[in-house]
Amino acid sequence: DLRNSELDGQQAEDLLHEVGITVNRNAVPNDPRPPMVTSGLRIGTPALATRGLDSAAFTEVADIIGTALANGKNADVAALRARVDKVAADFPLYDGLEDWKLV
Q1: Residues 67-101 pLDDT 10s
Q2: Which ranges of the chain would DSSP assign to H, the alpha helix?
Q3: Residue 17 burial class via C-beta count within 10 angstroms: exposed 0-12, middle 13-18, buried 19 and up
Q4: Could you tell me if residue 36 is inside a domain?
């Protein structure tokens, strides 16, 4: 719920996309913002579970999201992206994927 945040749902979605986390902006009950902007985010966890993230990794992802949203436009995108990249490297989709090449 971003109603009390400097960011709206669209800005939060865009910021998290910059750091490598995909979320969807969604309306919250009695949302004061228009439907294409919204005041909420939906964070899906199935992709993280599929990668085998443990509770510590889920906590790290939550902290990255919280840090990004708390800092808003002043977020250190590069540092947050590095943290996301580390989690992704620690929990790859499957071994060997990074070696695939298009012909």
Answers
A1: 999 999 999 999 999 999 999 999 988 777 667 77
A2: 9-19, 46-51, 55-71, 77-90
A3: exposed
A4: yes
How many distinct structural domains can be found in the chain? 1
Q: Considering the domain boundaries, does residue 70 fall inside one?
A: yes
Q: Give me 3's structure tokens.
A: 């109603």
Q: Alpha-carbon distance 38 to 34, whole Å? A: 6
What's 42's domain CATH number?
3.90.1150.10
- pTM value is 0.85
Is residue 48 within 8 A of residue 61, CB to CB? The reply is yes
Domain interval for residue 35: 9-94
